[in-house]
Amino acid sequence: MKKETVxxxxxxxxxxxxxxxxxxxxxxxxxxxxxxxxxxxxDIRGYGRHGSAVHDALKDAFNLxxxxxxxxxxxxxxxxxxxxxxxxxxxxxxxxxxxxxxxxTRYFCDGHLKKMGIETEMYDPRIGADIESVxxxxxxxxxxxxxxxxxxxxxxxxxxxxxxxxxxxxTIIDNTWSAGLSLNPLKMGVDISCHAATKYFGGxxxxxxxxxxxxxxxxxxxxxxxxxxxxxxxxxxDVYQILRGFRTVMPRFRQQEATSLALATWLNNHPKVxxxxxxxxxxxxxxxxxxxxxxxxxxxFSVVLKPCSEAQVLAFINALNLFGxxxxxxxxxxxxxxxxxQLKRSASQLLGGPLVRFACGLExxxxxxxxxxxxFNEIT
Length: 380
Ligand SMILES: *Cc1c(COP(=O)(O)O)cnc(C)c1O
Hints:
The chain is of the alpha/beta class. About 35% of the residues lie in helices and about 15% in strands. It is built from ten helices and twelve strands. Helix 4 (about 105-115) links the parallel strand 2 (about 95-100) and strand 3. It is globular. Pyridoxal-5'-phosphate binds next to helix 3.
């Protein structure tokens, strides 16, 4: 069955006489047992931190999304990435991280991993098969994100996975951009796929959540054990909200990807734009790889403006009425941010102009286009 059908029907209570369509939310710290003999069993849930039926339902949904062997849930997308990383490293290891990674993941590696005696080396997102040349005997992990945050470089995942497997190195990808709806990295041999469920699955900019989906049972157990030992727990209310988002994610995603590609296509010919950075647009330098590996686009992309003053960039963003100024994407509302202060890369190319990122919501494309067009009057 197609994903929209599966997501509509997953984990619904059996119909009875007046049964709700959705599963119940159970709020619990203590779970009670009627026999003392059962208190220390490890095959059943013993405590609130271990989840509930609605947690299991959401894990099932993520496993179905990417064909995973097991999923762990986290209170944020960043936590999904950091716990997945922690599950695969030890003191003395070397970690390879794409230079196009989500900033806070990089800060975690530069900070917390460093404190643990783990070295992180940044690599060019477009390195492809040459990743082999930077793998060391103590490399335990290669971290990918494709397309990259803010700059949207598409990585050659099969080439990187091939080199990683040849050297026994684990691979993790941040798959937030595609929502797992237009890229299936586990099928390409990636070991763990991480999501900021906050984005598309939340869908309404009111819930934080993350998921790490593992390719094998062994990897899933490693992530789950790390999460358990550190004390990870997710609120059943938040988990419910993400499961609710799953029901409608396909049509929302389809509309948002169509809007983003239409806006990117229009902006590509705009006199004040130097370049659009949208993998699904034919002008993108990695469009061929994107076409080979992805079945669709996402809702966010960036534009590189023709050189202009920072004051003009800020005035342009301030003049937008339908795009809120704020982080995140995948919600119902459109957002825009200027990205230059965030771009602290070591191996990236110079872009040649100011970067603005647009996240498309569910507004009509024509209205968003008119809003951007009018705001461009601030740039002379
Ligand atoms: C937003 C985002 C995250 C972090 O998710 P939160 O739920 O906001 O912590 C991680 N990776 C990528 C690519 C993101 O866009």
